[in-house]
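Entry:
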Amino acid sequence: MTSLFGDWAALMPLLVLAGAGMAMLLVDAFVKENAQLGLFSAVILAGTAMVSIGLWDEQVTAATPALLGGYLASDRLALFADVAMCLGAALASLLAGGYLREHKLDRGEFYVLLVWSTLGAMALVRATDLLSLFVSLEALSLGVYCLVAFRRHSPKSAEGAMKYFLLGSFASAILLFGMALLYGATVHTDFAGMAEALRTGETGDGPTDLRLGILGMALVLVGLAFKVSAVPFHMWTPDAYEGAVTPATTFMAVVVKAATIVVLVRVFFGVFGTEMLAAETSGWPSAVFGLAAITLVVGNVAALVQKNVKRMLAYSSIAHAGFLLVGIAAAAQLDEGRLTTETVSSVLFYVLAYTVSNVLAFGSLIVVGSRGKEAVSYEDLAGVGRRHPWVGVPFTLGILSLMGFPPTAGFFAKYWILEAAVNAGGAMTYLAILAVLMSAVGSYYYLKVLVYLFMKQPEQGAPVAVPMRSGYVVAALVLSSYFVLRMGLAPTAYLELAQGASYQLAGLPDPSAQPAEPAPADEAPTEVAAAPE
């Protein structure tokens, strides 16, 4: 592979999606049935995921100055994130194809915004410079702000979008200020240069100002914690999730969270992974530890008292962010090498499992309500599972996976995170115990959904939810159900992909990719002897 071809191959997922996004702007002007754009965008996103899978074994693991200018990377971490995010966005697009048409909200700009926001997320997980990180993060965020406000005449939609926009702008300002401090401390904006300056204490122009570096690191953590909806930076989440149309809520819950978690891993392990900054008691792992603990408690406890199912799922997403932060904190406190990379791979597996589980839960909520009879509260779900088993079964599967019940994807996702926390020892063991206790609390509000689906009946005179009929939504439910069960029954293949990404991130050879040593030329192959007793 020539260098030039390698550069373009590294960019191919971004180029494919960018070209398709521009084509959609033209298609939107001529297509009368906008629901077809939902299928079109889903095919585009699925195709982009396939391109990323095709690049997995190619030697396009480092960005070159010729085309990428050192601002973007192309490695297996980015490719794994591409697959998770494009899968989530494609399924959300299918859900939108049925939901928007059913509720007379079918406008083509929804799919254009979804595709371009996904492109911003894909650029974000590739960022290797503070400038590319900020630009791609804003490209992702601006599209999502518009998606939240998509229901133009809804006060809740306007309120959620305004809160998200104002608090998001404030968080972006904090993030930008942290980046400025990091530049002042290291005289670098590229991740490699910053990491070297923080490690050696020298910038080339003089000593590194570690005080500015630590403050900048803290502000960057705050800015990214807002995007992942970690407590106490979560206040926008319930209102934005409730106000947005449900496909947009699905997109936020899976794509935005996945992109932010991956960039957290890249930045904090790649830039702030020095012995001093990553110290167990005084470095950023202790801050992530605290964020994980309070996020687990607040997310699960607040979800208990919700009457609106979308708000419950919003607080559920906050609780899942806490689980992901447990994994990041555990990875930082383990030794270099095998355990660290396995812990990062458990975080990546969790991202993929959470993506398909959340799509299944939100998609089931979408299919429950037709126009004028949309299901939003627990009471709206009363008896739906018994009256319409084809709706109750996928809803049950999605809820059980979010709860972490075997044999679903969510079970192994939580199991491996908890195992990593216990292996880390020390205070991480107590955090693992807290996570288990909070999972038990979460079981209450998850099982409450199943109780209403199968064991309750609508009250006298109460409106009865009528499921919609949409091939797009059914297709999304079938696909997400397949992945939830496939990852639960045979998780090893997906975990190995996550391990390949984490080994490359750590700069270690992937054991699964090591070629067998050839036999010496002067020796003939021999039969394998029986094992000694």
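The first helix runs from residue 3 to 30.
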